Amino acid sequence: MGLTMAVVAPEDRLSALTQWVRRQADLTLRLSTYDLRGALESFREDPPDALLVHDAVLRENLGWLPNLKARQIATVVVGPVDAEAFRRALAAGAEEYVREEAWEAELPAVFERLLAARQPERHPVVAVFSPKGGVGKSTIASNLACAAAERIGEGVALVDLDLQFGDLSTLLGVEPRATVADVVRLPTLTFDGVQRMLAPIDKTDVQLLASPVNPLEAEEVEPEQAVALLEVLRRRFQAVIVDTALGYTDVNVAALDVADLILLVLTPDVVTVRSVVRTLDLFDQGFQYPREKIRLLVNRDGSGLSRQEIEEALGRPIDFGVPSD
Q1: Which of 33, 79, 129, 254 is the most buried (most CB within 10 A)?
Q2: DSSP letter string over 306-325?
């Protein structure tokens, strides 16, 4: 759900601000005018969700600022870096203030925050993880995303956070539009910016964000950027599935922390089970994750150690099993 918008600005600024609003997929223009008083009168019965107003209009309508504030419309002011202008914005009840010399660069992030406040629902993030390679983790992640999209009937995001060796794009047979490294280079992290970098998976409602093509680009991705990316995606997609890397890199741990559910993948062999025992101990004692956050999935179930042997070694039941086919 987007925002309905009104733009109030002097005639020499009105066109540029109005055209910017019209270009935004999540914003619907209701009114464009230089007349603040007339706009407030028209809002009496059915106000828009947000108002984009220039400081010059506020300066010319000082007596109406309390009236604007009383309407409790989410207001964004564009104006100079000036103490008096800031005071006018406060008097008008503005939630955001954007510098006039940088308004095109700053407005996307401002409206992303307003949209997030209006859409507080945070859909689940599922991190698919294993301490050992070769267990089918990426295959599980990609199939889980496709199955979730089919079951939910709406869009699911699939993120390849195996930043050095991720191969989901190859596995799914798609040519990525961009990668995680390209996302973190964006001047501001907004959904519109991220969406342009997602690759649709044919015949599904899954959108893939691929891992970097050059393994050296993994160094460009900071943990807080990975978290911000997942938070942006979870507000717009019904679920976010994350294929993680091996080990406990800072980015991996950040993704595991933010995840609502960790799907811990293992195969029924002694070496992998021992690795998972240590992982569960780290999750419990080190990271202090609640027990219900972890789900155990045995891939190639029945081809090695029995369920009973695995559960005795791990000290907890297996949640899911995928048999060899």
Answers
A1: 129
A2: -HHHHHHHHTS---EEEE--
